[in-house]
From TrEMBL, chain A:
The keyword Transmembrane helix does not apply. It comes from Phasianus colchicus. GO terms for biological process: autophagy; protein transport. Keywords: Autophagy, Cytoplasmic vesicle, Endosome, GTPase activation, Membrane, Phosphoprotein, Protein transport, Transport. It is found in: Cytoplasmic vesicle, Autophagosome; Endosome membrane. Residues 95-114, 542-667, 828-881 are annotated as: Disordered. Its main location: cytoplasm. The lineage of its organism: Eukaryota, Metazoa, Chordata, Craniata, Vertebrata. Signal peptide: none annotated. GO terms for molecular function: GTPase activator activity. PROSITE patterns: TBC_RABGAP. This is TBC1 domain family member 5. Interacts with MAP1LC3A, MAP1LC3B, MAP1LC3C, GABARAP, GABARAPL1, GABARAPL2. Interacts with VPS29 and VPS35; indicative for an association with retromer CSC subcomplex. MAP1LC3A and VPS29 compete for binding to TBC1D5. Interacts with AP2M1; indicative for an association with the AP2 complex. Interacts with ULK1 and ATG13 (phosphorylated); indicative for an association with the activated ULK1-ATG13-FIP200 complex. Interacts with ATG9A; the interactions seems to be restricted to the AP2-clathrin-associated fraction of ATG9A.
UniProtKB/TrEMBL annotation, chain B:
Residues 28-179 form the Calcineurin-like phosphoesterase domain. It comes from Phasianus colchicus (Common pheasant). Keywords: Cytoplasm, Endosome, Membrane, Metal-binding, Protein transport, Transport, Zinc. This is Vacuolar protein sorting-associated protein 29. Belongs to the VPS29 family. It is found in: Cytoplasm; Endosome membrane. It is a peripheral membrane protein. Component of the commander complex that is essential for endosomal recycling of transmembrane cargos; the commander complex is composed of the Csubcomplex and the retriever subcomplex. Component of the retriever complex, which is a heterotrimeric complex related to retromer cargo-selective complex (CSC) and essential for retromer-independent retrieval and recycling of numerous cargos. Component of the retromer cargo-selective complex (CSC). One of its GO terms (molecular function) is metal ion binding. InterPro entries: Calcineurin-like_PHP_lpxH, Metallo-depent_PP-like, Phosphodiesterase_MJ0936/Vps29, Vps29.
Length: 881, 204
């Protein structure tokens, strides 16, 4: 019996039950909600007042649990929730408290089954909301602050937000009835019944007629559109019983159909039903509340008219059309004609992304704009990450924007989001910022994951704890000055689910899936190898500039070849900043974006203390330097940076063995975050390497082809050097294992690298930066042996190599005489080429090239290599003197 | 690119079933005799019969070949055929279809002797206990009420000749069944013009 009562009451057909029964019903329904809350994780439902809870009668698991009513009624007090939800602006909350204070007592009487009291509180809420000089501003504020969540006049508020109701209250009734009659007319025109054709000519008006004027013909044309709409309407909120009812579906279909017929340009587009459904739902909710409240007393004329359940369809249409005025261009797939012509005229940009090349559809332009401008502005790292993965914003953004996030949140949360969206402005420009705020909420998860998981995350947006924080964040993003800085929430969860979803997606969308995601356990192992693999070329090419640029100021962008030397110290800063940010809750974590490529970020702040004791005496001085905020001082001195790098390597190797003991101060969470972050970096580096290898491959292929066609005299040499290049390519690609001992043992290094790249240096003019590295290294090593400047240089690798080289070059340019000496020496040995020589010494590579090109007549294998060797030695020898 | 995205979207949204159409049209035709006596349906008829408008076909038989049957299948998904006297495929002799409040009996008519005789048809109607009896074989359109019951003979859709008649007017019938009324539209090809007639029958 109580079950039946609940069903009857909830379906809103009849509510003629006795008061005592009412009480039972509520408790039953609430009981079911509690169950569903725990099972489905829907938050905030328990906070809803019973009126809204009536909507959840659908849950089948109705259980009557003793004592349930008491406990629930305490937690689900409607006004209590508002107090909880406020708490943003102290002034605001104060206002609310004073406002709500009086009605609190009414609220409590409401659920003690006193229907007169119900009505009093009901009309009181009405007065609070609308009987006010500046009521519109008040409800807007309430909407933005999420306080309409439990309001029983949400539909009226929305009507005001959407300008369906005029601001002038005296016009409300007139305006509403006008809109309703206009909808009646529209419906009459568009919804045809061929059977009511009357006495039209049968030749024209028969079921198979193809005449334009025939009602039958129109009917059949409509039927296609209607079938399309119905197909979507039947899928609207499948989890909600309300939308399964036939009459509700009919309302949805009719409204959409009329809209489509009124807007022939746009017609019906998939997704519109998702915009309409919540509108219909809140109208229904408010009508229920109204009919419940009006049982006891006579409501005012305004309420009666505005909340007349008979006109649900009419009101829904009016609100929907208003909403669509803003949203319609998001649905239109028309290309802007002018733009199209322009596109046809101008050839597409050479490096444009695929999403830029396509036809410029409004929605695509919009989501691209959001990602390219807003996201770039607020979180460059996430932006870069998404770009690198080539996740075009329309893949996920299309749905987000079109449905106004309808699929991303559960309905109750969605309504709160819409409250804010509508209340903010009818132009819905908050959408962009909520978009960005949503991305920022999952930014850590996104950055640490690969394409597959990213896609999974974006397409199946994770459940968000507090929607209101998202709105606050969006407001803050839009206008940081006016809005308080919100607390930063980050989504942290096991990503396996989204990985799986992403995999599903990818299987659906594309046949060839990308490489399997990296396991976190694998990271630490592969990182070591990988870091080494990368260091030599990366260091040699660009790291001299790194420390000065990077250490002090944390600029927003860093290249992947950022110097490794400052990494541990740098990372310490970063970690500090991170910690700082956690306490201060900065919305955009700038610091994280600055971390250099994976190798640099590995030694966490926790590792340093444990790793340090094992180092040499020089390293013992490093903590003091690390503690310095600037850290610029030591960038110029090679021994220090060398020891830095050494400690960096040892920490890598030790980090695993000592991982158990080292987490004294730092929490495990931080480490996990770092690991995931590192994984992201590693993925990026790996992708970069693969890309480099691929490009090298193509270019080498081209070079080889050309050379084979040209039939040069020294073809063999070129081919040999090409083979050397290919070897590098293979190393980059990972197919050829890079010998780790090459980096550690000097002798070995000298031999192997000389073998590999010697000829290529002397012959190939087009070699890139990567080749410079070994040459310099070798040169430096020789000089190091000969000059014996510092004992530390012996254990030093890439970083100080470069510094020394630069020093060396400086010294060379400062001493012109040895160059002259060498020149004379050369002239005696080979045929003279005087004018080019002085230039040669500024760059050893160039020198060797010109040297080799000078003696074309000699045999390639012996002479040219000898020659370049000579030049190398010749460059070094002046230092010896 | 965008189209691709939209498709993905469509895929991601849950699959649903097509809702039932509220207005249904029944097409009644028969005695086509293709290819023995006629090459095919008249062009004017063919142009009228666009797929998607008609949901059901009641055929009084004498399709003669499977190809004709397949053609009818392209026009409507639901098709009921009874066996004629010169049929190559095996269909049931008679059929009863219930649509809403109406029971519709379907028979070719060569079994009813004399052919097309009202009293004999009434006898058969009582046997089958139907509200509407549809029969063919005479190649002559007829639709009449007898003892508050409705009798329809759609004639020959191709205008094929019979043993008794050479000048046959091609005709078929469209039936729109509402709750308690049947509206029939008769399509006849008279001298290259399609004439439409409307007959209403109410059940009491």
């Amino acid at each position: 019996m109580p079950l039946q009562a609940a069903a009857a009451a909830a379906s809103g057909i009849e509510y003629s039950l006795k008061r005592t029964q009412c009480r039972v019903e509520v408790s039953i329904i609430l009981g079911s909600i509690i169950i569903c809350k725990t099972s489905e994780g829907l938050q905030n439902i328990a906070r809803e007042p019973p009126r809204r809870l009536l909507q959840y009668y659908k849950y089948p698991s109705v259980k009557i649990i003793g004592n349930m009513y008491q406990s629930v009624s305490e937690t689900s007090h409607p006004l209590q929730t508002e107090e909880q939800e406020v708490g943003i602006d102290p002034l605001q909350s104060y206002l609310n408290k004073t406002e709500e204070g009086g009605s609190n007592e009414n609220g409590s009487t409401q659920h003690t089954s006193d229907s007169a009291g119900t009505f009093i509180s009901y009309s009181k809420e009405w007065e609070e909301l609308f009987v006010n000089n500046n009521y519109l501003a008040t409800i807007r504020l309430k909407g933005i602050n999420g306080q309409l969540r439990s309001s029983r006049f949400r539909s009226v508020c929305w009507k005001l937000f959407l300008e369906v109701l005029p601001q002038d209250r005296s016009q409300w009734i007139k305006n509403t009835s006008e809109l309703r009659t206009s909808y009646n007319k529209i419906k009459e025109i568009h919804i045809t019944n061929p059977r009511k054709a009357g006495q039209q000519d049968l030749i024209i008006n028969n079921p198979l007629s193809q005449d334009e004027g025939s009602l039958w013909n129109k009917f059949f044309q409509d039927k296609e559109l209607r079938a399309m709409i119905e197909q979507d309407v039947t899928r609207t909120f499948p989890e909600m019983q309300y939308f399964q009812q036939e009459n509700v579906r009919k309302i949805l279909t009719d409204v959409l159909f009329c809209y489509a017929r009124e807007n022939e340009q746009l017609l019906y587009k998939q997704g519109m039903h998702e915009l309409l459904a919540p509108i219909v739902f809140i109208l229904h909710c408010d009508h229920q509340a109204f009919s419940h409240a009006s049982e006891a007393a006579q409501p005012s004329e305004e309420m009666k008219v505005l909340l007349n359940p008979e006109y649900l369809e009419h009101d829904a249409y009016a609100m929907f059309t208003r909403l669509m005025k803003t949203a319609e261009h998001w649905f239109s797939t028309f290309e802007h004609d002018s733009q199209k012509e322009k596109d046809a005229m101008i050839t597409p940009m050479p490096f444009a992304r695929p999403q830029d090349l396509g036809p410029s559809i409004a929605i695509v332009t919009k989501v691209n704009q959001i990602q390219d401008q807003l996201l770039k502005k607020h979180d460059i790292e996430l932006y870069m990450h998404l770009n690198r993965l080539e996740i075009a914003p329309q893949i996920y953004g299309l749905r987000w924007v079109r449905l106004l996030f309808g699929r991303e949140f559960p309905l109750q949360d969605l309504l709160v989001v819409w409250d804010a969206l509508f209340a903010d402005s009818i132009t819905l420009n908050l959408v962009d910022y909520i978009f960005v705020a949503m991305l920022l909420y999952i930014r850590d998860a996104l950055i640490s994951s690969n394409y597959q998981t990213c896609l999974g995350l974006l397409m199946h947006y994770p459940p968000i704890g507090d929607v209101h924080s998202l709105i606050l964040r969006a407001l803050f993003l839009r206008d940081p000055k006016k809005n308080p800085r919100p607390v930063t929430h980050q989504f942290q969860q096991n990503l396996d689910y989204y990985k799986a979803r992403g995999a599903d997606l990818m299987n659906k969308t594309r046949a060839s899936a990308k490489a399997a995601p990296l396991n976190i356990n694998k990271v630490s192992n592969s990182l070591l190898n990988f870091g080494r693999k990368l260091i030599a070329p990366a260091m040699a090419s660009g790291s001299t500039a790194g420390p000065t640029a990077g250490a002090g100021s944390f600029p927003p962008t860093t290249g992947p070849t950022r110097g490794t030397a400052e990494a541990p110290q740098y990372h310490q800063h970063q970690a500090q900043q991170q910690r700082m940010m956690k306490s201060e809750s900065m919305p955009v974590q700038l610091g994280k974006g600055d971390a250099p490529a994976g190798d640099a970020a590995l030694p966490g702040p926790a590792q340093n203390p444990t790793a340090l004791p094992g180092q040499s005496s020089k390293i013992s001085s490093s903590p003091s330097i690390e503690s310095l905020p600037g850290g610029r001082e030591f960038t110029g001195s090679p021994p220090l940076s060398a020891s830095k790098k050494d400690s960096f390597f040892s920490t890598i190797s030790r980090s695993r063995s000592q991982s158990k003991t080292m987490s004294r101060k730092e929490s495990e969470e931080e480490l996990e975050a770092q690991i995931s972050f590192l994984q992201g970096q590693l993925n990026d580096l790996e992708a970069m390497c693969k890309y480099c290898a691929k490009m090298m491959n193509t270019h080498l292929g081209n070079i080889q082809e050309v050379i084979l066609q040209e039939h040069l005299e020294k073809e063999d040499e070129i081919l040999v050097s090409l083979a050397g290049l290919k070897q590098i390519k293979d190393i980059l690609k990972g197919s050829l294992r890079f010998n780790q001992s090459q980096l550690e043992a000097e002798e070995n290094e000298q031999i192997t690298i000389a073998d590999d790249h010697y000829c290529s240096n002397s012959q190939n003019k087009g070699t890139g930066d990567i080749l410079k590295g070994p040459v310099m290294t070798k040169q430096q090593l020789i000089s190091g042996r000969q000059t014996a400047t510092d004992s530390s240089t012996r254990e030093s690798k890439g970083a100080d190599d470069c510094i020394l080289v630069s020093k060396e070059e400086g010294s060379r340019s400062a001493v012109p005489e040895p160059a002259q000496l060498l020149q004379t020496f050369k002239e005696s040995a080979v045929k003279p080429e005087a004018p080019s020589r002085p230039l040669v010494f500024s760059d050893p590579l160039m020198g060797s090239i010109s040297a080799s090109s000078s003696n074309l007549s000699s045999s390639p294998d012996d002479n040219s290599s000898n020659n370049s060797k000579d030049s190398d030695f010749a460059i070094v020898s002046p230092l010896d003197i | 690119m965008v189209r691709c995205c939209q498709q993905t979207e469509r895929q991601l949204w849950k699959e649903g079933t097509r809702p039932p159409c509220r207005l249904r049209l029944w097409r009644i035709l028969g005695d086509l005799h293709i290819p023995h006596r006629c090459s095919g349906l008249p062009a004017k008829f063919k142009s009228l019969l666009v797929p998607g408008k008609i949901q059901h076909i009641l055929c009084t038989g004498n399709l003669c070949t499977k190809e004709t049957y397949d053609y009818l299948r392209t026009l409507a998904g639901d098709i009921h055929v009874v066996k004629g006297d010169s049929e190559s495929l095996n269909y049931p002799e008679q059929k009863v279809v219930t649509v809403g409040q109406f029971r519709i009996g379907l028979i070719h008519g060569h079994q009813v002797i004399p052919w097309g005789d009202v009293a004999s048809l009434a006898l058969l109607r009582r046997q089958l206990d139907v509200d509407i009896l549809i029969s063919g074989h005479t190649h002559r359109f007829e639709a009449f009420e007898h003892e508050n019951k409705f009798y329809i003979n759609p004639g020959s859709a191709t205008g094929a000749y019979t043993a008794l008649e050479t000048n046959v007017i091609p005709s078929f019938v469209l039936m729109d069944i509402q709750s308690s009324t049947v509206v029939t539209y008769v399509y006849q090809l008279i001298e290259d013009d399609v004439k439409v007639e409307r007959i209403e029958f109410k059940k009491y």
